[in-house]
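Renewal narrative, Specific Aim 1. Our central claim is that a sequence can be written position by position from structural information alone. The example that follows is taken directly from our test logs and has not been curated for this report. It begins with the structure tokens describing the chain, in the order in which they were read.
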């Protein structure tokens, strides 16, 4: 449900006065906002893994608050100072009109890390307590708030689509955070957060232990989100800059909309894969889901359904549809790659091997940047196609690395450090 969000925004922006400029500006601002908020994105995983009792959760929540406030200050520093032009215009080479429209949107999105981080910390408590249904309900309210705010804002400010989208985003995540906090409160009051022991450890969670666990995950998410501005910079160096900057957010929103269920497989694996038999069940379920979603993507990408989806739903012009289609076709197998990644990452996180997850993301980003540089040097393709090729290649290499590093269930070859996990 959460990945409906960019599609809702793109559908709304597809009905503004200047569709190309609105989509491009919001895409640039959103990619930078995700990079700035990257340090708090793995709070959910930390909360799931470490919120074993009320005292541990309170430590996680204090840690979350400090991180979120720091990230907010960084966002404001980038968006309100000359750093913005240095990064967006000089470094990323974004066209001046797109950069100017993106700036106020980034200023607004600088305030969303706090409710996002707060929500993620409390979602961890709900997951550990098995109260996952309310998470979907809260996300549904978030989407309704986003769609309503976007519609109302575009009625009032039809020429300021990117700004309206930024306002609607901040309001919607705040509503979701409030609902999740309300739902987690009874669990914390009755100490139901302690649904799983700390793997036999009697000592309480310490700030140092939490930071040691979280530091590699922090680096991983920063590297992961750095790929978005890198992709926009690569797109800006290719032909048909504005069209590709406008088409790529729609391509990415559509691909992730279909693939989004596999992202939660990481948390599923972290919580459930406690022995060989359960891990195999998780793996079979994950691969079945991933292949099904890839088939659905192919059905749209290679049939007349494409024109219906992109033309009628997203309201793209025929020119933008032509720019976007080959990128969608290249990314047909994206859900399979992410499904494998999610299971491997979840297993590694469960075993405390977070450095391996970080290393995999370093490799991913390195391959992504290398692919972009090669594409820029060769030229001959649109920016949207280059972004799709770089994304697919980098994820494929990361899967290969994670496969090599994954914990083993075999009694003959599993590492001694895996014994406490499986």
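The sequence written for that structure reads:
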């Amino acid at each position: 449900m959460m990945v409906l969000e960019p599609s809702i925004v793109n559908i709304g922006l597809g009905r503004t006065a200047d569709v190309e400029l609105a989509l491009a500006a919001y895409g640039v601002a959103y990619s930078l906002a995700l990079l700035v908020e990257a340090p708090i994105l793995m709070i959910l995983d930390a909360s799931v893994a470490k919120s074993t009792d009320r005292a541990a959760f309170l430590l996680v929540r204090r840690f979350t608050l400090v991180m979120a406030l720091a990230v907010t200050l960084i966002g404001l520093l980038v968006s309100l100072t000359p750093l913005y032009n240095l990064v967006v215009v000089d470094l990323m080479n974004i066209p001046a009109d797109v950069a100017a429209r993106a700036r106020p949107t980034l200023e607004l999105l600088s305030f969303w890390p706090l409710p996002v981080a707060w929500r993620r910390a409390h979602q961890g408590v709900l997951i550990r307590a098995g109260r996952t249904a309310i998470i979907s309900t809260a996300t549904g309210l978030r989407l309704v708030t986003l769609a309503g705010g976007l519609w109302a804002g575009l009625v009032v400010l039809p020429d300021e689509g990117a700004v309206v989208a930024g306002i609607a985003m901040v309001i919607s995540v705040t509503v979701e955070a409030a609902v999740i906090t309300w739902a987690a409160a009874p669990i914390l009051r009755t100490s139901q957060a302690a649904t799983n022991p700390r793997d036999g450890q009697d000592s309480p969670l310490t700030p140092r232990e939490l930071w040691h666990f979280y530091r590699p995950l922090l680096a991983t998410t920063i590297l992961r989100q750095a790929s978005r501005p890198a992709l926009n910079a690569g797109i800006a160096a290719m032909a048909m800059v504005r069209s590709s900057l406008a088409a790529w957010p729609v391509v990415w929103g559509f691909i992730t909309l279909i693939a989004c269920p596999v992202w939660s497989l990481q948390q599923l694996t972290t919580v459930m894969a406690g022995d060989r038999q359960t891990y195999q069940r998780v793996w079979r379920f994950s691969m079945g889901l991933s292949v099904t979603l890839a088939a659905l993507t192919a059905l749209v990408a290679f049939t007349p359904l494409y024109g219906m989806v992109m033309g009628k739903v997203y309201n793209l012009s025929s020119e933008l549809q032509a720019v976007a289609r080959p990128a969608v076709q290249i990314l047909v197998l994206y859900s399979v790659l992410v499904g494998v990644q999610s299971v491997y990452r979840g297993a590694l996180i469960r075993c405390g091997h977070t450095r391996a997850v970080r290393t995999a993301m370093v490799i991913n980003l390195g391959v992504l940047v290398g692919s972009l540089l090669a594409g820029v040097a060769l030229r001959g393709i649109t920016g949207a196609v280059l972004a799709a090729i770089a994304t697919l290649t980098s994820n494929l290499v990361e899967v290969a690395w994670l496969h090599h590093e994954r914990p083993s269930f075999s009694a003959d070859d599993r590492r001694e450090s895996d014994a406490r996990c499986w």
